[in-house]
Amino acid sequence: MTNDRILVLGCGGLGGIVAAALLEQGAEVTLVTHNEEIASAICERGLVVRFEDSVRRTPGRATPRIPPDAGTFGFVFLLMQPPQVEEAARTALPHLSADGAMVCFQNGLCEERVARIAGPERTIGAIVAWGASMIAPGVYERTSPGGFVLGTLDGRIDDRLERLRRILGPIGEVHLTRNLTGARWSKLAINCAISSLGTIGGQRLGVLLRYRFARRLALETMTEAVVVARARGVVLEKVAGTIDLEWVALSPDEFRKAGSASLLAKHALLLAVGTRYRRMRSSMLAAIERGRPPAVDFLNGEVVQKGREVGLLAPLNARICDFVHAIARGEMRPSVPLLRRLFAETRREVRAAALSGYREPYVLRSVVR
Q1: Helix, strand, coil percentages, rounded to 5, for the chain
Q2: Scanning 1, 138, 251, 272, which has its CA 20 to 30 A from the CA of 227?
Q3: How far is CA 246 from CA 102, 170, 214, in A?
Q4: What is the Cα gyration radius of the chain?
Q5: Is the dihedral of CA 77, 81, 85, 89 positive or negative?
């Protein structure tokens, strides 16, 4: 018999909207959030979801920890920020059925971390192609449309993926992939730009991408991620079936020239992305505002570390890590001028590294000046 009981861990932006959709379907769901204020709000008022012109309220209950008599679950939905994912996986492991799976909804490469805890055969990746934020405890805003890409680490399309497709389908269109690693790295490249630069800039995506220098930073950030992925033998997947990160990545010629037709096209693509996802706000910035550690080490930090393992540098991603950690420590305030400062301070290093194939023996600066 299949076990479709679902344990949802994390009721932040994504978690709240996913949980509300599951409850509306009548799924057997247990909601857990370590934030007692959020748990109380959900128990008192349910989950309130705003999207475009609609507001929906779904009755529900949430607890600050997994009930000891909860039993086993066919799926454990991991919907917290990346810094908490490994602890959550360890806590939930005794409640995962023998043929069940933990589903990683985080940005970054969290499947590798969860697989070391639950086993690769019980780990599924869920790449989220839409945005959300929690605007008050238990009150959520979906900031863009979109769906999911699901896959396993070994590329198999099994019954669990088909069941998840049906479960998540009411939230958005679900695609299955045999190349989870390639899809994850493509999304990682985008999040290294959008989420982290959004944290530094402190504005929604539509505002930030109106600035040419911000779009240039985004292109350079994604380029470093693409170069590292190539060196590691990753075959990148198109994002949402349309955005080709291999094409988005800047060529050495585009670093040499002040402008070109190809650069104009890439800036136009980012302007279009900014228009479509104009209301999207960085979940990393929201985590910092709630006193949580930022996930930058799981995004830009992964690019830096994975690059070092194959002898490549990612100087812009390293500097972004510095800035985000400084914001988390209260040493900087997110703003467009701060993002412009990042741009000004990285021009020489980023260009030199790109033109030398990212192998120039620079010492990556770890202190924000």
Answers
A1: 50, 15, 35
A2: 272
A3: 30, 31, 20
A4: 20
A5: negative
